[in-house]
Every structure is written in structure tokens, then in C-alpha cells.
Amino acid sequence: MSTPVLQTHELVCRFGGFVATDHVNLCVQAGARHALIGPNGAGKTTLINLLTGYLTPTEGRVTLLGEDVSAMAQWARCRRGLVRTFQINQLFGDMTVLESVALSAAERQGLGGRWWKPLAARGEALDEAAAILQRLGLLADAYELTRNLAYGRQRLIEIALALAQRPKVLLLDEPAAGVPTSESRELFEVIAQLPREVTILLIEHDMDLVFRFAERISVLVSGALLLEDTPEVIANHPRVREVYLGE
Ligand code: ADP
């Protein structure tokens, strides 16, 4: 039996008189490889911001593992396992890859800025970081400064930072944006191999990547969910073809 891990219930977000999210009922099942697609301005970013707590809904609820998190701060949702990737360049460019990921693990362990003490905890964070880097094929880059890596590798480190938060649900917001095609393939091969304990909700513009990765796809149009189904059904749906291909 499938279990929903992340759900929205009649979620609405208005900016003044404009409805950016229109009674959305999104349901992401445990272990899913679920993608959210929609043309520009469909409301994907707004929906992600409502899920993570960056925005507060005008109406409706968000539940994580059955718990109502609608009024919860971003960090509290993160502690409960809802983790999104974030732009690395602003934060960790002058640290090595290993340090960056260890800092994320230390932060989760509650050590925060005092991550260098106690020493045992620092060792634990470093060990955890090394294990994550190994899983993502990044161990060879452990002692590189993150800003010196190719862009595709940097985007992988964003995923490593998120994994160090031990996510139950990982929100990947355009992980391949700005990444050259050859590197984005590699990126998605790594993402596809993440363990099933981590449920993934992906937002991605590149339909080729979406259709190769996702098992369920939700289509958002003008703030409302048009449909949710398998990639095969979505690809052949007349309304989706109309929205995407102008047919
Ligand atoms: P997408 O990510 O699918 O491109 P967005 O969620 O960014 O779509 O935007 C959906 C709609 O909401 C757009 O028309 C956008 O202009 C509008 N919008 C987004 N954020 C705000 C805001 N803070 N204030 C007013 N309108 C906004």
C-alpha cells in the first residue's frame, strides 16, 4: 500500500487579487520519483515555497508524514525531513567540498557554528560527509574548493548538502538549470541512484530529463493541477500537448 509523505490540501496562494496557487491537491507517495511540471508562470516556484514554508498559504494545508506543517517555520519542516536544495555559490564557495558537507551534517546534529567542537562530533560529521561524497561519486573532489568545480559538480554538492540533512522528502528545484547537457546526464544518473528511503519531488524544465526520471508527473497550469499520472499518460495527453507543444 502506498503512503503519502507530502500532501497539499486545497492549497491556495493569492498575491493581491492574483491567484498563483489554485486549490492544489498534490500527493507525493513514499519513495516516489515525482516531478512537477508546467509552463513558465504556472506557479511551480510558488508551490515549492508553500511546501517549504517560505510562503504562507492564503487557504489550505500542507501535511508532511500526516502532520500539519502549514504554520511551521522552514527550519522546523527541514528537521522533520522536508529538505530542498539551495544555491551553493552564495554559501560555501570558499570551503572545501568535504568541509561544506560536514558543516551541513554538523548543523543537523545541532552543533551549528560550533561544529569544530567537540572533536568527536566533528569526526562524526566528517565521516558522514565522506560517506555521502562517496555515494555521489564526489570523493575525489573532497579537498577541492567548491567554487573551483565544474558547475554540474557544484549542483551535485548541493544535493550532498541536502542529503547531510537526512531528508525524508528531497525537493529538487531545477537541479540541472544552467548545467551543460553532458553534465546534466551524469547529474541525473546520480539522482536516479539515491536510496528509495528518500522521496524525491523534482521541478525541472528539461522534459527529456523529467520523462526519464519520473514515475509520476503532476502538471500545473495557471496555478491549478491539470492532472497527475505516469509519464506515458502525461506525454500523450491532449491538454499537455496543447500547453507544451501548442498543438
Ligand atoms: P513558475 O515557477 O511556474 O514559473 P511562479 O510560481 O514563479 O511560476 O509564478 C506564478 C505566478 O505568480 C506568476 O504569474 C508570477 O508573476 C506570480 N508571482 C510569483 N510571486 C509573486 C509575488 N511575490 N507577488 C506577485 N506575484 C507573484
UniProtKB/TrEMBL annotation:
<protein>
    <submittedName>
        <fullName>ABC transporter ATP-binding protein</fullName>
    </submittedName>
</protein>
<keyword id="KW-0547">Nucleotide-binding</keyword>
<dbReference type="InterPro" id="IPR032823">
    <property type="entry name" value="BCA_ABC_TP_C"/>
</dbReference>
<dbReference type="GO" id="GO:0016887">
    <property type="term" value="F:ATP hydrolysis activity"/>
</dbReference>
<dbReference type="GO" id="GO:0005524">
    <property type="term" value="F:ATP binding"/>
</dbReference>
<keyword id="KW-0813">Transport</keyword>
<dbReference type="InterPro" id="IPR027417">
    <property type="entry name" value="P-loop_NTPase"/>
</dbReference>
<dbReference type="Pfam" id="PF12399">
    <property type="entry name" value="BCA_ABC_TP_C"/>
</dbReference>
<dbReference type="InterPro" id="IPR003593">
    <property type="entry name" value="AAA+_ATPase"/>
</dbReference>
<dbReference type="InterPro" id="IPR003439">
    <property type="entry name" value="ABC_transporter-like_ATP-bd"/>
</dbReference>
<feature type="domain" description="ABC transporter">
    <location>
        <begin position="6"/>
        <end position="247"/>
    </location>
</feature>
<dbReference type="InterPro" id="IPR051120">
    <property type="entry name" value="ABC_AA/LPS_Transport"/>
</dbReference>
<keyword id="KW-1003">Cell membrane</keyword>
<keyword id="KW-0472">Membrane</keyword>
<keyword id="KW-0067">ATP-binding</keyword>
<dbReference type="GO" id="GO:0005886">
    <property type="term" value="C:plasma membrane"/>
</dbReference>
<dbReference type="Pfam" id="PF00005">
    <property type="entry name" value="ABC_tran"/>
</dbReference>
